[in-house]
Design goal:
With 275 residues, this protein is an all-alpha fold. 67% of the residues lie in helices and 0% in strands.
C-alpha cells in the first residue's frame, strides 16, 4: 500500500507544472514504462515529438515509439516511425541503430515483396488471397462476414506455392500466408480477431508447418529471422515461455557470429521471459 502511494505521488509530481504547455520528458516516459504504463509512455513520447523541444529527446522518442510498436506486433507502425526518425535525424545515434533494421522490417510488411511476378495466373491467385486478408478501399462492398477469411485467403496462396514451387511468386505467397496466419484484428472495440490473434491453438500448428516449408523452399530469404521472431512473440503472448525460449535461441543460432537486429532483439527478449 505504501509503495503504491509513493509511486502515485512520484507520477503526480511529474505531471504537475507545465499543464498544456508541457513539452514532455524522457524521464517521465521511462518512469511510465518501468511501471508498465505503456499507453501513458506512448503519449509522453508523442508529446516530446510534437512540442519542438530538444532534438536529442525527439530522436529518442521516435526510437522508443518504434520499439513499442514493434513489441506490440505493429510491425508497419514501427517501420514508419523509424523511417521518420532516419528522415528527421539522420545523424543521431538512434537513427544509426535502426538504419540496418528498416530493410529487415520491410520484408515483414511486404514493401520489398513487390518483386516482379511474371506469371499472370500466379499474380491473380495472390490478388484473390489478398482480398480476404487485407483491408481494401474499394468503391463497392461485399458482405463476407459469413466466410472464414483466413482459410479463404490461404487457399489462393497455397495454389501459388503448389503450382509455382520455389519461384518468386511462391516466396511472396509464403510471406502473405504467414502474415495471414499470424492474424489481425478488425478496427473498433468489437472488431473480430483472425488467425493466431483469434485462435492460437487452432492456427499455431499451421503457422509452424508453413514456416518450415518456407524455410526449406527459400532458405536464404532475408525475412526468415523476422518470422522466427513473430513465432516467438506469438508463444510469448500466450505465456508459453519454453517455446518462446526455443524460438529466440534459434534466432541467435541462425545469426552465428553476426551482430544482427533480430539476434540483439532475441537476446534482449530472453532476459524478459517470465519463467
Amino acid at each position: 500500500m505504501k509503495k503504491s502511494i509513493f509511486l502515485t505521488s512520484i507520477l503526480a509530481s511529474l505531471l504537475v507544472g507545465c499543464g498544456s504547455k508541457d513539452k514532455g520528458s524522457i524521464e517521465k516516459a521511462n518512469l511510465f514504462l518501468e511501471n508498465n504504463l505503456v499507453s501513458d509512455a506512448k503519449r509522453e513520447f508523442i508529446q516530446i515529438i510534437t512540442s519542438s523541444g530538444s532534438k536529442d529527446e525527439e530522436a529518442t522518442a521516435y526510437y522508443q515509439l518504434g520499439t513499442l510498436s514493434f513489441e506490440d506486433n505493429n510491425i508497419e507502425g514501427a517501420l514508419n516511425t523509424w523511417k521518420k526518425l532516419v528522415a528527421e535525424y539522420p545523424n543521431s545515434p538512434e537513427a544509426e541503430q535502426v538504419k540496418d533494421n528498416i530493410q529487415e522490417l520491410t520484408q515483414i510488411v511486404g514493401e520489398t515483396s513487390k518483386e516482379s511476378i511474371n506469371n499472370a495466373i500466379a499474380a491473380s491467385y495472390l490478388k484473390n488471397g489478398d482480398f480476404w486478408s487485407e483491408d481494401k478501399k474499394t468503391i463497392f462492398t461485399i458482405d463476407s462476414s459469413w466466410i472464414p477469411k483466413v482459410e479463404s485467403s490461404i487457399k489462393w496462396y497455397d495454389k501459388v506455392i503448389t503450382e509455382y514451387p520455389k519461384s518468386v511468386a511462391s516466396k511472396v505467397a509464403y510471406k502473405k500466408k504467414l502474415r495471414t496466419i499470424l492474424g489481425w484484428k478488425d478496427i473498433g472495440q468489437y472488431g473480430s480477431s483472425y488467425g493466431i490473434r483469434g485462435n492460437f491453438q487452432k492456427y499455431i500448428p499451421l503457422l509452424l508447418s508453413t514456416f518450415r516449408s518456407f524455410e526449406e523452399d527459400h532458405p536464404t530469404d532475408s525475412s526468415l529471422q523476422a518470422f522466427r521472431y513473430q513465432i516467438a512473440q506469438s508463444y510469448w503472448n500466450n505465456r508459453n515461455w519454453n517455446e518462446t525460449r526455443i524460438w529466440l535461441n534459434e534466432i541467435i543460432e541462425k545469426s552465428s557470429d553476426d551482430d544482427t537486429f533480430y539476434k540483439d532483439l532475441a537476446q534482449r527478449r530472453l532476459k524478459k521471459v517470465e519463467y
